Amino acid sequence: MKKQGLARRGNNSGLFSFVSALAAIVIGIAVGFVILLFANPPQAARGLMVILQGGFTSLRDFGSVLYNATPIIMTGLSVGFAQKCGLFNIGGPGQFIVGGFVAIYIGVKWTFLPGATHWMVALLGAALAGALWGLVPGIMKALANVNEVIACIMMNYIGMSFVNMMVRRTVYDAGRNQSILPEGTGVLPKAGFDQIFVSGGAASSANAGFIIAVLLGIVMWVVIGRTKFGFELKACGLNRDAAKYAGINEKKSIVLSMVIAGALCGVGGALLFLGGAGRAIHVVDTLANEGFNGIPVALLGMSNPIAIIFSGLFISHLTMGSFNMQLIGIMPEVVDVITAVIIYFSAFALFFQQVMQGIARRRAGALRARNGPEGAPRPPAQPPDEPAPGAAGGEGGEAQ
Questions:
Q1: Alpha-carbon torsion (88, 216, 350, 239), positive or negative
Q2: 20 to 30 A from 120, CA-CA: which of 135, 190, 327, 346?
């Protein structure tokens, strides 16, 4: 009975997560439609249909959805993984750009590496660089209880300035004010996507990076839900003092969670800049948007690695739809507002989940009060005028 109750609560939690995320998406799209009505009434309905179609307009657009979803899936996994330990990893931009720089550096300079080992080593180097950038906030939090948000923001700007300096000194294309593109062996393989997602003779930029992101998402799901290490992380996230009392090394969990989160962001940077789509690091004083975009992806996915994969695809799908909206005469600024509103309301998915869980708890409490603690109906009470079994009844019995 107790195991059935736990399983039922687990299933309810998954259902609540799905329904709450769906409610947030519907509300976000509705608000976006209202903005369209004010901005361009004649094209409002058509604009809504275009943004909902997203990447389904052609195979090439769908491949672009996969390509654009890859980095935000990785940064979303980073944010979600750190959240399991009760940490908010807002250091994604710094970890992302540092990992991307190391990947580009290896892709440009280490041409002595043969074949596929070139891009593999570049991915590994990016993971190590991102892990190092996540290690600093993790140590500061574990040893000195420094708020990880402050430490991560500090590391973001240090990473941005450091990468700008290193790009100028090592892999700089002065004519374009950006980094040099990696060599052919340093580029991720297409994995057949260039043969599948083709429209009008033009192939999309989709590559093996999407497969790597999905595999890492599955690995994170196994680590969080099926390993002792994942249990310790979640225990620290729920109650750090109780975890310490239970014998869990909470400082070690904090540091490792930030290191792994940083490594995931670093790999995300590598998957973007090694994608063979001409993306490079521009020497500008701007933080990488992909690092911040992982936050709404993780919120919409309720920090579940599998759900984060789908939420990353969904947000990339909407982004592709917003690009197509410009073709019908809607200003780009309106498109940006609509996308921002949808992402903003996605952040309320957790709120909707808590509301629905509260309603379910109240209903379950009322049901237990009516049916008893075990959930079984109580036997009906005997009528007061009915004699108990075995008792002598009637006036004749009394006379005897």
A1: negative
A2: 135
Is residue 280 within 8 Å of residue 178, measured between CB atoms? yes
Domain boundaries, the chain: 58-321
Report the distance separating Cα 154 and Cα 228, nearest Å. Answer: 32
Task: Look at phi and psi of residue 187 and say left if phi exceeds 0, alpha if psi is from -120 to 50, else beta.
Answer: beta
Architecture category of domain 58-321 in CATH: Orthogonal Bundle (1.10)
Give CA–CA dist 268/119, Å, rounded: 14
227 backbone dihedrals φ, ψ, rounded to 5°: -125, 160
- Using N-to-C axis directions, what is the helix angle for 332-346 and 2-39, rounded to 10°? 160
Helix (H) or strand (E) holding 213: helix 208-226
Residue 274 to residue 291: CA distance in whole angstroms: 17
Of 196, 197, 235, 191, nearest to 215 by C-alpha is 191
Per-residue pLDDT of the chain in tens (400 residues, 90 and over written 9): 444 444 444 455 666 667 777 777 888 788 888 888 887 788 888 888 888 888 888 899 899 999 999 999 999 999 999 999 999 999 999 999 999 999 999 999 999 999 899 999 999 999 999 999 999 999 999 999 999 999 999 999 999 999 999 999 999 999 999 999 998 899 999 999 989 998 877 888 999 999 999 999 999 999 999 999 999 999 998 888 888 888 899 999 999 999 999 999 999 999 999 998 889 999 999 999 899 989 888 988 888 999 999 999 998 998 888 777 777 777 766 666 766 776 677 666 666 666 766 787 788 778 877 776 554 555 555 555 555 555 444 444 444 3
